[in-house]
Design brief:
heterodimer, A: 470 residues, alpha+beta, Ubiquitin-like (UB roll), Enolase-like, domain 1, five-stranded mixed beta sheet, five-stranded antiparallel beta sheet, 20 strands, 29% helix, B: 205 residues, Aldehyde Oxidoreductase, domain 3, three-stranded antiparallel beta sheet, 8 strands
Chain lengths: 470, 205
Amino acid sequence: MKTDNSSQSPDFLLNSRPVSARGVDLQTTLLDFIREQGLTGAKEGCAEGECGACTVVLVADRAGRSEYRAVNSCLMLASMAAGQEICTVEALAADGRLADVQQAMASGGGSQCGYCTPGFVMSLFAEHYRPGRSGPCDPHELGGNLCRCTGYRPIRDAALSLGPAPAGKFLDRLSRPAPQLKAIEYASGGARFSRPTSLEQCLSLLAADPDARLISGGTDLVVESNLRSRRWNHLVSVEAIAELCEFSESALSITIGAALPLNEVAMRWSTAPEVFLQWMRLFASPPLRNRATLGGNLATASPIGDGAPLLLALDAVVHLASQRGRRTIPLASFFTGYRRTVLASDELIAAVEIPKPLPEFVRFYKVAKRRMDDISTVAAAMAMDWDGAGRIVRARFAFGGVAPVPLRALGAEAAILGQRWNDTAVERVQSALDQTLHPIGDHRGSAEYRLAVAKSLVAKFLWERREAAA
Amino acid sequence: MKIAGQAIPHESAREHVTGDALYTDDLLLRFPRPLHAWPVMAPHAHALVKALDVSSALLEPGVATVLTSADVPGEGDSGSNRRDEPLFPTEVLYHSQPVAWVLGETLEAAQRGAGRVLVEYEPLPAILTIEDAIAEGSFHSAPLRLARGDASVIESSPLRFEGELKIGGQEHFYLETQCAIAWLDETGGVAAHSSTQRTPRKHSR
């Protein structure tokens, strides 16, 4: 890869046709780009990855097999599509014949105003062609698509009515490998987009340009641009760096590459406990999980990010890398203030490591205005281990949404060591939380509400333990 | 012919599932070099607009003009029934209410221009909750009373159950974003596509 300013062209395949995003501004989204090509099926509803009206699919690798992966095109920059194969709703029907997913949605009454429909169709298309799928399509894969008029019943029925994906060009495409992302260095209007393929190149880019901003899936950063007109001089994408997309499990720990999309983590961690899968479902919708990464979620350091609480409860550490060297930091010391971390400007998160054995009993709770596809008002993760006599030997209470940073309630943890996990212990934890948690009040919930929720979740953790033990 | 029980797609279903159905923003490609409008939004829930200075915005590259009340010879109100939706309000009644509109050669230019319009506000006390509004006697419209029979007997009933009910109802919030395309047509009039459900509502006097 060149690190001078010679600009390459972000070219990709759009419905099997080569297109070039050369000349587009850095902040131009893939959605805007494809709409400017005349493909207006994908719509802008929210521009922040909540509604799914902009859903398109790209051909991606999933453990050596190709799959169609639904993504929010409003949260991908056009330059990030370089080298990808992207398919929009316009590609599905051929010779006047609707694709199965389209036919199912049309005959099942799955549209009313129709604005959200192309997005639903594309999410359903990805699910219809999911390699290894047996039985009907899973309606949960439509969790990233909002409909405001029809209601979800007919859409769900359409999903449940679909059988195996039919033979033809779409299935044929999956028998060949997915595109492998190459390095790209693109400049437009004074702004730069770099996508290195090695960690070394990436760290050298960061060292050379203190202004460079890291990006992976774009599910957080692109929202800042879409809704708050944030502009960047230089984005460095970590998406194509294999070293940051590794997953490994040993007898001692689980190591998750910082740039591995959440859905891939879930797929690769085959021995993951149920709490992990539940956490994933609550974390974000399927199209967001297809792009979002743990590295991004931690580095953006939002106090209401859903990544930190569970990882804090699991005693995770983060591996940081820069040209100056590597260091390992406990996640509990990673956040230094509101949206601030220990990361230096030339440094990135390379991986997150979770020590083994995992705690005996772990729960993750997310309280938000909607059950799914929403931002946390309060998130909590709790973990506990006992000795043979039922006395607590390790307790972890980690929270999001109750302080400027995601935090562990160390006082609460210490207050119950050596005791039994019962109503008295819950009260001790709750009084400790009164001292530790200092939530703010905002449109998601008042300070009093947040504190009350956090405390009541501790009681829930006891009830669930009793249920599990019974 | 048996009709009952048959799945009959509605008249737009095919266009919806193929993405062929066109919405207002999808029509933009039919208009070469359109100007994009972006609102200047008030950062107060309740305020008076004391002064509005567009001169810096006009210097922004790509900004064509800034529309203010001076550009509307008529009433300048887009409210269909109550006439309470001034296009260019002198009194701001909700947070982010548009007070002026910037026209730019690109959306980006219009947005940048909107950031450079200087507006002087005099913030006024705002009523933000239903309870406060009732206490202040501030009602959106005249109270609506539904009555049947003699309700006064409730007062003398031996057993009464009292309580309050809050209904979180809201207007149907369809996904299509608010947008409109307007152009001078062949008659010299203004024609418009709008993502509204009733085009007559968009006629301004």
